[in-house]
Hints:
mainly alpha
Amino acid sequence: MKLLITSVLFILFVMPSTIAQNNKQFLLDYYTTTEAQLQQSMAGLNEAQMHFKGTPESWSISQCLEHIVKTEQMILSMIKPGLEQPANIGEKGAPGNTDEKIIEMVTDRGTKHKAPEALIPEGKYKSPEAAMADLKAGRVEILALINSTPDASLRDHVSDSPAGIVDAYQYFLFLAGHTSRHTSQVQEIKEDPAFPKS
Length: 198
């Protein structure tokens, strides 16, 4: 519960003013924050807890983590080639949503989304450590790309998404916010009365 309150306060009081500055540092800090919150939420979990499912249809914590990793790999594979092309905002048009709206949409657990077939997880992780190792490994390239891409290029390279046209900056924001979304799901699973105590 403390973790969820911290996440809400971060979004309400830190996010709007910082994003308004079109600040790459906010983006990097958001990755650091959401990764730390995810790690904290599953610290010390054992294999039984990782694979607990409240219902046959619901996801386990292991599946949530695998989905995060798969999603980051897939979206990176979409963003990277786009950034290697000339700027295309002139031909495709500007994003229809603000940065704040992108984060609001992706972190809103009140709105459910069905994952694409390629991103449906099996639940391969038996420990938090294994999941975090894969997440951190994948983020090395993500963070390197953010750092090496000029601010202007993050904004003038756009692509279609389920939320409409987004620029590269917003796609990177989406990934960090997506981690926050599923960290909330991990907390929900842990709060299930049937969740194994040890």
